[in-house]
Each structure stands twice: as C-alpha cells, then as structure tokens.
Design goal:
By secondary structure, the protein is of the alpha/beta class. The protein folds into 5 domains: 151 residues, no CATH class; 104 residues, no CATH class; 131 residues, Rossmann fold; 108 residues, Translation factors (Elongation Factor Tu (Ef-tu), domain 3, Beta Barrel), CATH 2.40.30.10; 154 residues, 3-Layer(aba) Sandwich (Rossmann fold). Helices cover 41% and strands 22% of the residues. The strands form 5 sheets. The protein has an 8-stranded antiparallel sheet. It is elongated. It starts with a helix and ends with a strand. 38% of the residues are buried. The chain binds flavin mononucleotide (FMN). The site of flavin mononucleotide has 23 residues, from helix 12 and strand 13. Keywords: Electron transport, Flavoprotein, FMN, Membrane, Transmembrane, Transmembrane helix, Transport. Its EC number is 1.6.2.4. One of its GO terms (molecular function) is NADPH-hemoprotein reductase activity. InterPro entries: FAD-bd_FR_type, Flavdoxin-like, Flavodoxin/NO_synth, Flavoprot_Pyr_Nucl_cyt_Rdtase, Flavoprotein-like_sf, FNR_nucleotide-bd, OxRdtase_FAD/NAD-bd, PepSY-ass_TM.
Length: 723
C-alpha cells in the first residue's frame, strides 16, 4: 500500500516537474520580458514619490474656452496643462498640440515625446503590438509555475544554480506569488475600482471637462484622458480622481483597488514599489536560473559530437583519457579538412551503427592486467552474438611493453570484432608508451597529409622525495588490508589536479598507477593499499611498488615516477557544480584531493562522499580528517557503509538507502558523480544509480539507463576502477 501511494506521488511529481519546466521554457522570452518590464515599472511609485508635488494652478475658465475652441468635435483623447499652467496640451490623432490659454493660439505641434516608463508599460501590457492576450497567458503560466515550484523541493540550500533557485523561490514566495496572482486577477477584472456604469454612450475629455466644471475644481487639473468603455478619467493634484460618463461625474473613492495597488506597488508609495521591484527581480532570476541550469544539463548530456552526414566514425576506449584525447584530436583534424565526423566513446556506440560508416577508426588502450577499459567492455557486452559482416575498421592500440599483456585490451577487441564478421582494413598499430608518433603514422596511412593540431601532453617524468608515511588502518586486524597515506614532495611546482595519476615503476617492473589525492603544487598525497600475496610455499610477499612505498623505502628516499593527466576523472573545473564522490576502500584516494581543492573556496558547491569499507574502527581511511572536513563544511555530507559489521552494508546499499537525497542531487542539482574503487564497484554503483532514478526520480528502467549513459558520455559520471 505504502509503495503504491509512493508511486502515485512520484508520478504526480514527475508531471509537475514536466509542467514547471516546459511552461517556463516554452514561454521563456515572454516571461523574461514581462518580469523585466514589471521590475522597471515598480520604480514608478519610487520616482513619483521623489518628484516635487505638482502645484501648477490653472485658470479653469480659460482652459474650457481654449479646449472647446481648439477641439470643437471632441476628438482629443487626452488633455493636460502645460508650460506651468499657461497652456494646455491636447493629444489628437497621435499628435501633441499645445495651445496658449490666453488667446488660444496653437503654440506647437509635435509627435508624442518619448516617455520611458510609458513605453515600458506598453511592453508590459501588450508588448507594444496590442498582444495583451499573450501577457495574460504569461501571467497564468507564471502563476502555475510559482505554485508548482515549492511543491517540488524543500528550501534546502546548496551553493549551486539550482540551490539558489530553490532557496530564492522559497524565501521570496509571498512576493513571487503575489505578482502573477494580482496580474491574473486584474485580467479577470477582480478587485479593481468600482466604476459608474457607462450609460448614455461614450464621452470625450473635452466634453467631460466642460460638464465637470460645475462640480470639480479644475484649477487643480493634472490630466483628463479617455478611459475604459467610453468613460473619461479626470485626475487633479488635490489629490482626487473622478470618472466621467456621458451622464454623470463621480469621484473615484475606492482608489485603484487593492489588487491593482499590490500589483503596481503603489499601496505604500516608494517602499511598496521597491518591494515589487525585488519580487520582479526574483521572478526574473528564477526564470533565468531555471533556463540556464536546464541548458547546462542538456549541453553536458549531449557531449557526443556527431556532424551531419558523417561517414567517418572515431570511437575510443580509454581509461585515463589518452585514447579519448587522440580520438578528439583526430576528429578535429578531419573537421578542419572539411570531413564530417562522429566521435564517441566506444561504450556509447551501438554495434549496429558501425555498418553505417565508410570508415571506422578505433583507438583502444589497455588497463589492469591486459584489460579493455570500461567503455570497451560495455561495447563488447552490447555486441554479444550480433554480426558485423561487411564492417571494415582500423585500430590504434595504446599500451606499455612493461606490462605482461602488451596492448592486451585492443587485442581482445580485435578478436571480438573479427569473430563477429568485421575485418581490419589495416594491421593494428600498437603504441608503446608515448603514443604521439604511432598515432601520426596511423592517421597518415589512412589520410595522407592530414594536418594535425596540438597533441595531448605526454606523461611528465618526476623525481620525488618520500616525505611521510602514516598508517591509516588498524594494526593486527587480519580482516582489513593495510593502507598508508604517503606524502611525496617535488623540487618544483607541479601542474596537476587531484585524480591525476602518479605512475611509479620500480626497476624491472611495469608501472603502477596511484590516484593523486592532494591539491598542493609541491606535495603529492597518495593512499596506497599494501598488496600482499603468498607463494606456493606459503611465504608472504608484498607487491613491488606498494611494498616499496609502504614498507621498503626509508623516509627521505628519492623515487622516479611520471605524472599522468587523467582529465576524464578530474572534478569539474567549475567547483560550484555539486559533486558526489563514491569510493570503496583505497578508492577514497583522489577524493581526499577533491575535498582539499574545495577547502576555503567560497564558490565551491556542495560535496558528498559515500564511502564503503569493512570496519569503522578498522579501515575507515582518513576518518578523522573527513569528519573534520564535514564539521567545518568543506565536505557537505558524508555517508558510510561497513561490510563486516553492523548491518553489513556496501556502498550500493547506502546509495539506495539515501536514494531520495541522492536523486535530488543528481536530478535537481545536476551533480557530477565520480566513482573510484575496485572494478566490481563500478557495476554495483551503476545499478544503484539506476535504482535511485527509478525509485525516486520516477524514471522507467529504460529512461534511467539512457540518462546514465548520457551522463557517462558527457563526463558528468566518470569511473576510476582498478584491480
Ligand atoms: C593501471 C594501468 C594498467 C595498465 N595495464 C596495461 C597492460 O596490461 N598492458 C599494456 O600494454 N598497457 C597497460 N597500461 C598502459 C596504458 O594502456 C597506456 O598508458 C595508455 O596510453 C593509456 O591510455 P588511456 O589514457 O587512454 O587509458 C596500463 C596503464 C595503467 C594506468
């Protein structure tokens, strides 16, 4: 029962989100214009309160003589004193004609002077083209949007575009609701002034003033103008306003009515005007931030680049970004030459697509022990037993001969493609280490003379000093694996960001990569798990690289290493974007640096670490500093899962348990997600993300899958998996 209620609620919420978003996006230009002009008009009462009171007095007998002489047919739609009370202006046939009260001669005739507020008012009322109906639609839409908005999210602050959108919407709710509500009431004629019935046909300003002379002191006149349904509105500086019909003249006692006063901000002079200006500014800001955040998400989710009519596909399977960078550089070079190209991660390519391209270029690296990177594995899973007969491809393999299975990942891909019926159009090109030269030759063989742009930077060689080593795990507990915090210092400033990799290759061994978890230019912090294994005789050995770092090397020793940029896994350069970090065990390594990078930065958005390990007292790595980061706000949220005690939870269970909040971060705030840990964590996290979108975001399974795939392609979701 509870589940059914929840599903109904989720469904309603999904529809409301849809309505809120598409009403705002569909009418965006109109809403922005109406709120902007409304905000400007809110300054009218402010300027009026600052202007000196009009004390012009006018000779009423001369006024009546002049206007009747000048406009015997009563065509003028507006009459107002001019030149300090010595003249009168009549507005007739779109012209402003000013007559002297003494003598009645025409002094000047001109088109209407430009009146800023009047023009803005025209825009606000009917877009200056008589389209009042569009403005009425905008008022209704805005009312619906502002009523729905607060139903979608609590006022939970987050330093992100949507965080501000939510909080501003809630804090200014009365104002934000009042403006469109009063606008809608005005379109319905509710709450306006009570006017005498327009009996006896229409009247004109000149006729009305002539008849009013008996009952109204016209020496205080400021304006007489045609008004609704043939009436005339007579305003005096007394201050008093009268409404004239063809048969009667009545003072407008109730003022313009509360609804109009609220809408125009005139109920308390300058102050109410300023209040409305704030309300209109918030409405404008809400519309703008809503649109901007939607556009940002859309742009990020469509990062796969595909030109119209592309006949060339370049697909990459990359772990740390080199293959991806080469693929993009190839695509750019071909585009500069005028060739339309599609460029995508292999995991985002449907195997059936390959047959649609004349040229298929594949760039695949190798990770782990001869493994294909994640993206390539996804492609192989999608390929299954499908056939690719007729497909011709060219493969560039990236690898490093120091590993046991040189270019093992690309070979696996090659074998699977051949087994499916595809054929290589040329022998596979294999790059050992820095791939620049091999990449050039490989491209040149297919596209002779192609101009190549800047190449991705090769790994930078470093000489570092082992500064300190701190044990992060409990001693004498066989259930947890020993991990250390290692700090290495450089002699010069290094250009890196947390999440980049330190490649450490002890003599004679393949390099091991360690995710960098620091953000200082001369210090590199690593979280290293000590690899242990027993040989056939039961003798215990340590992994070569981790053994040296954690046990073997003395403090102060020099080590040679290389710095490898891992662009795809770095946190977004815009630190304001909310960030969810999901780690298993030593996978917390880069996140220590991600958090450091946000420390003391007022512009940093919220961050959430979901961390899983075995035991709270055993291998909750960096516990003290993470708790301190949480306390001082550097880290916004910290969730843990312990697999060997209590409820025995894994990270995925924790994600589901906090699914409602996680969904909010992902869907409403457009949070970036970074996942780091052993390879099995990747699949588990992806399944949990899908569950969260289905259970709390109202997505169907298929929609969740497509959305997550979009995040991967755009870089909003990235994995760094090892082992
Ligand atoms: C953790 C790790 C494991 C690797 N394993 C292998 C391997 O088994 N065989 C190989 O030839 N190269 C291996 N390499 C080297 C990479 O394939 C090579 O550096 C490549 O240029 C990386 O490309 P990418 O940045 O697109 O992932 C490994 C590199 C790393 C970081």
């Amino acid at each position: 029962m509870g589940r059914i209620v929840f599903m109904v609620f989720t469904d309603i919420k999904r529809r409301l989100v849809w309505l809120h978003r598409w009403l705002a996006l569909g009418l965006a230009p109109l809403l922005l214009l109406v709120t902007l002009t409304g905000g400007i008009l809110a300054f009218v009462p402010v300027t009026e309160s600052l202007a000196p009171a009009d004390s012009t007095r006018i000779d009423s007998a001369a006024l009546l003589r002049t206007i009747n002489g000048a406009d015997p047919e009563g065509k003028a739609t507006m009459v107002m004193p001019a030149d300090g009370g010595s003249a009168v202006t009549l507005v007739r046939d779109g012209l402003w004609q000013t007559y002297a009260l003494e003598g009645g001669q025409l002094l000047r005739e001109a088109p209407p002077p430009f009146d800023f507020f009047h023009t803005v008012e025209g825009l606000h009322r009917n877009l200056l083209i008589g389209a009042g109906i569009l403005v009425e639609i905008a008022a209704w839409a805005m009312l619906a949007i502002t009523v729905i908005g607060p139903l979608l999210a609590w006022p939970r602050f987050a330093n992100s575009l949507m965080g501000w959108h939510r909080v501003a919407g809630w804090v200014a709710l009365p104002l934000v609701l009042m403006l469109p509500l009063t606008g809608v009431l005005m379109t319905l004629g509710i709450g306006g002034p009570s006017l005498p019935p327009a009996t006896g046909g229409p009247t004109t300003p000149v006729a009305a003033l002539t008849r009013a002379a008996d009952s109204v002191d016209l020496s205080d006149l400021t304006l007489a103008r045609s008004f609704r349904q043939g009436r005339v509105l007579i305003t005096t500086s007394a201050p008093a306003t009268y409404v004239a019909t063809a048969t009667e003249i009545a003072p407008l006692t109730g003022g313009p009515g509360l609804v109009r006063e609220l809408h125009e901000g005139t109920w308390a002079g300058a102050w109410s005007g300023l209040l409305n200006a704030v309300g209109a500014a918030v409405l404008f800001g809400l519309t703008a931030t809503g649109i901007l955040s939607w556009w940002r998400r859309r742009r990020a989710d469509r990062a796969r680049s595909s030109d119209q009519g592309a006949r060339i596909l370049i697909a990459h399977a990359s772990h740390t970004g080199t293959a991806a960078a080469l693929a993009h550089a190839s695509a750019e070079a071909l585009r500069r030459r005028g060739d339309p190209v599609a460029c995508a991660a292999l995991g985002a390519v449907d195997p059936a697509e390959l047959a649609g391209y004349e040229t298929v270029l594949l760039i695949a690296s190798t990770t782990g022990e001869g493994e294909l990177p994640d993206s390539g594995r996804r492609f192989l899973a999608a390929l299954g037993t499908r056939r690719l007969d007729g497909v011709r491809y060219r493969m560039l393999a990236l690898g490093d001969r120091r590993y046991a299975h040189f270019c093992g990942g690309a070979h696996r891909l090659d074998e699977a493609l051949i087994a499916a019926g595809a054929r290589p159009a040329a022998p596979m090109a294999c790059a050992d280490g820095d791939p620049a030269a091999t990449w050039r030759d490989w491209l040149d063989a297919q596209f002779p003379g192609l101009e190549l742009g800047a190449l991705p930077a090769a790994d930078r060689k470093l000489s570092l000093t082992l500064e300190s080593r701190t044990l992060l795990t409990a001693e004498n507990d066989d259930e947890v694996s020993e991990s250390w915090h290692i700090v290495l210092t450089a002699d010069e400033d290094l250009d890196y960001r947390p999440g980049d990799l330190l490649m450490f290759a002890p003599p004679g061994a393949a390099p091991r990569s360690y995710s960098i978890g620091s953000a200082e230019p001369r210090r590199i912090g690593l979280t290293v798990g000590l690899a242990r294994y027993r040989d056939a005789d039961g003798q215990e050995h340590f992994g070569l690289a981790s053994g040296l770092l954690c046990r073997g090397l003395a403090l102060g020793s020099r080590i040679e290493a290389a710095l490898h940029r891992h662009e795809a896994f770095r946190a977004p350069a815009d630190l304001a974007r909310p960030l969810v970090m999901i780690a298993g065990g030593c996978g917390v390594a880069p996140f220590i640096g991600f958090i450091d990078e946000r420390r003391g930065r007022a512009d940093a958005g919220p961050s959430w670490l979901i961390f899983g390990c075995r035991k709270q007292e055993g291998d909750f790595l960096h516990r003290a500093r993470l708790e301190a980061d949480l306390a001082d706000g550097t880290l916004t949220r910290l969730s843990t899962a312990f697999s060997r005690e209590g409820e025995r939870l894994h990270v995925q269970d924790r994600m589901r348990a906090e699914g409602r909040e996680l969904c909010r971060w992902l869907v409403e705030d457009g949070a970036f997600v970074r996942v780091c840990g052993r390879s099995d964590l990747g699949l588990g996290v992806e399944a949990a993300l899908a569950d969260v979108l289905v259970d709390f975001g109202g997505r169907t399974r298929e929609a969740a899958r497509v959305e997550i795939e979009g995040w991967r392609q755009s870089g909003r979701l990235a994995f760094d998996l090892f082992g």
